[in-house]
Design brief:
Mean pLDDT: 93
Number of helices: 8
Radius of gyration: 22 Å
Number of strands: 18
Number of domains: 3
Oligomer: single chain
Strand content: 25-35%
CATH topology of the largest domain: Rossmann fold
Low-confidence stretches: none
Helix content: 10-25%
CATH architecture of the largest domain: 3-Layer(aba) Sandwich
Largest sheet: 9 strands, antiparallel
Length: 367
């Protein structure tokens, strides 16, 4: 890892305070460093069609916890309403992707376009120097520009969700937790007497109040159709293609037989193609296509580049090669991977350094 050339100087920093333990400790650490810190609680869209359920990220409980945190830290707290922008940029994209046969990851778009991106614009507008959050990732300032590296705690690392950030974004960002283990953060929260020291974490999609299938059923148009094996023989009936994803086992119910695994979503014929073999060769691919590539340095590679590739969050990255291909990018993996899923992000690393990433294309047949 290159030496971080950043010099700690007193800054005016907006901290995204969610009411969770990570953002609480981030705010306290920055306050302890002598920065002028203001907490910001972001209000996102909630699904009013489901008994006025709260968004997990900005529920009344979270707002109350954020207030208690900022009172303990000794900083002011303000609320910003990004509900309309969140709905337009994140939720609508999420629904469109599922309707199109993709399995999206909304956190990637949220971080770039709303949670961090929108907050950066706001901070610049009111004359603040930086935006901070409780993400587990390291930001380095070097002679070649800003870099992102995996957090010290690899089990909590969130670099996967931040590959769409650019140099302009990174110049404004501060990630105080990058060098800490999660267990240490819990210990510090108790030491700082923060009221959320023992608060449980939520791992679900924040704007889905019940379960994903029911949320999609309320908001998408779909129709049932045949489930076929790989010979084309119909063996069942699916409830609608948006409810399935590559490699899925649960929910593929065919008259008491199976288990079956989703191999392909045939959108043209509204057909779900499955196999009864968990390691069927057709569940594995060694190359796929990215229509667009995001590259943190701003200088996308002109020649093929060897790197490590993560095809989903918490996936153990594998060796691969990235090459310019037609109007997009070809990713060739050193070993075939199971359930490479269109709509998910392929993210590229050089060791622990985040290089960039892109969204896996729906149709990779021309690779």
């Amino acid at each position: 890892m290159p030496k971080n050339k950043s010099i700690i100087k007193k800054q005016k920093i907006l901290v995204a305070v969610s009411g969770g333990v990570d953002s609480a400790v981030a705010a306290q650490l920055l306050k302890n460093q002598g920065h002028e810190v203001i907490g910001v609680f972001m209000q996102f869209w909630k699904d009013d069609g489901f008994n006025s359920a709260d968004n997990n990220c900005c529920s009344l409980e979270s707002w109350s916890d954020a207030q208690a945190v900022c009172q303990q830290v000794g900083i002011p707290l303000y609320a910003l309403n990004f509900a309309q922008e969140f709905k337009r940029r994140v939720v609508n994209n999420f629904l469109t992707a599922y309707q199109s046969g993709l399995t999206p990851n909304p956190c990637v778009l949220c971080n770039k376009q709303v949670k961090l991106g929108r907050l950066i614009k706001y901070a610049q507008k009111i004359g603040f120097d930086a935006v901070a959050s409780g993400h587990y990732v390291k930001r380095l300032s070097t002679d070649q520009g800003y870099q992102l590296w995996r957090a010290a705690d690899h089990s909590k690392d969130q670099s996967y969700f931040l590959y769409q950030l650019d140099q302009h974004d990174l110049a404004m960002l501060n990630f105080p937790l990058g060098d800490f283990q999660k267990s240490t953060i819990r210990h510090l929260a108790a030491e700082f007497k923060l009221p959320v020291a023992n608060k449980a974490e939520s791992q679900e999609i924040c704007f889905v109040p019940d379960n994903l299938a029911d949320f999609l059923a309320r908001r998408l148009k779909f129709k049932s159709g045949p489930i076929c094996d790989q010979t084309g023989r119909q063996i069942g009936q699916h409830r609608g293609l948006p409810f399935y994803t590559i490699g899925q086992r649960r929910g593929v119910e065919i008259g008491g037989t199976g288990p079956y695994y989703v191999v392909r979503l045939d959108l043209i014929n509204n057909t779900l193609v499955v196999t009864d073999q968990a390691n069927d060769p057709q569940l594995f691919v060694d190359k796929f296509f990215l229509p667009r590539l995001f590259w943190l340095s701003g200088n996308r590679p002109r020649r093929p580049i060897d790197c490590q590739v993560a095809i989903r969050y918490h996936h153990q990255a594998v060796s691969g090669r990235l090459t310019r291909h037609n109007r997009g990018w070809l990713v060739e993996l050193a070993s075939s991977q199971r359930a490479v899923t269109p709509g998910q992000s392929a993210v590229f690393y050089d060791g622990d350094q985040l290089l960039g990433g892109g969204v896996i294309a729906l149709d990779n047949t021309f690779c």
